[in-house]
Specification:
15 helices, 575 residues, five-stranded antiparallel beta sheet
Amino acid sequence: MARLLLALTAVGIACWSIPASAKGLQINVSLCHAVTGLPQADNALPSRFSCSGTPNGYQQASLWLRADVTRLPVDRNDLVLMVHHSRFDRLAVLFSYADGTRQWQQVRSGHYGSHWRAGGQIAFEAPVRNAPLVAVTLRFDKFASHNLLRARLLPRGESGLQSAALGAVIGAALTLLLIGLVYNLSLAVAVRRQFLAWHGAWAGCMLFWGLIWSEMHLIAVPGMAGTVSAQTCTFLACLAVTLATASVVTSLDRAALPRWAGRAMLVLGGAVGVLGVPLALIRSAAIDTLGGIAGILILADLVLVAVCLTWAWRRGSAAARDFAGAWALPMATLAFIQFVDVEGAFWGGGSKIIVLLAAAWQTLWLSIAASRRFAHFRIERDHARAAEAQANELARRDPLTGLRNRRGFVETIEPLLEHVRSEKMPAGLLLIDIDRFKSINDAHGHEAGDMVLRCIARRLERWEGPMCAVARLGGEEFGLMIAGLEGFALARFADSVRLEIAACDHGEAIGEGIVTASIGVAETQAPSDFQQLFRLADQGLYAAKQQGRDRVVVRKFAVVPTDAPEPPAALRAPY
């Protein structure tokens, strides 16, 4: 987008250097007028043209406009008449020469042929003759309003250069709008934000408006030339105001803007959109009145939007800040063209090319602002997810030893048990209980007992791996689940764990004393669930305690009734 904007700016600067020697044609200034009935033939020119007053009654008739070229500062041997397309049924142009020769050219609504040019213009090239051109006459059949007339005379070479430059600028602006449309709608679907959908719809509306106004669409749909295109442009322009207003309202936080202000903006924006329907369809003299009303509503909407954005910005709304930057140029542009007539400027593009460039600027600004905001949100979301994951991990870890707690152990071995069942592998659950741990706490203090537990946990942690999980289940009891071992190998493994625990150096905590452990092992070929394995291993641990401690007792898996009684609590107290 940035490269396209730079390219567009470069083209604009280059085009600005194009010499502008065009002569604008205006009624009662350089154009005289007459009105006749529609049946009158083109060659039967009106006998009298008036160069003062206002033409009337031509909406269902023919409006004739005549320019005396001999009185204009133009080269009469190399001229092109450029007329902005508008609402008429037919436009016929007569070039009159000093030797009495007359040359007619014409276009009709729905068929411009090769006369259309980029920027919503129709070109009539005066045939080159030995005799100089003396007059240009235009005949409009069923012209909606003479106030819509925009016509210029300019040299042939300059006409081609301006049309090419205008086409390049329009193409760049439309490309930016297309990118903004796709980007905002995609982002709206991805993050489910309403204002992005409204802004995407606005970008799409401006894209179609730009295509139709510039007449680029005639490449694919030549039958839309003329009145249909002009009416569609009017409706799309009003609809764009409505969509842009909705985009602003939905982007601002409710806490940053009074409810009445949002509703007032929607009412004004909606009124412009509703007014666009009759304004697009009408072809009578009332079009000027409705156009004036639409201009007032648009200005009121712009003022209210500016006030609301300022209000929300002062209350700390980041969205208001972004929209203020995006809307500043379009609002200034719309306000400017309401008071200043620039229709003959910018190589014939007039106010429309300014609006199109401002729309491209707004789309680019809001797309970048949205990307920046959502990138910030994404970073915050990632941090939140990382913190949540860390909190979840801590909730599954024993804070003293760093091993998994009972909850984390169960969650870890469930996938391991599934793997064992699917691969039909043996597995074993070791319940490890430190012998006479209470006496260690009584004799050396709880801090020493904690040091003993941490030392044993570090030793057990060495077996942690894809096929082995270790946890502190509570108090002085540890759990170890291992897959792939059975029978003698499992018993040897459990005994090696017992010996490793006994080999731990606790000199710093309890001096030269040795800490031993009793281990109950549940061996299975078809593990059912953790609770059944735990019950079986607990029976083995109970037996190891009863047999004198510091030993391993293995119990092979057998279905145990769910209502089997637990060992008496009084017998487990000395563990």
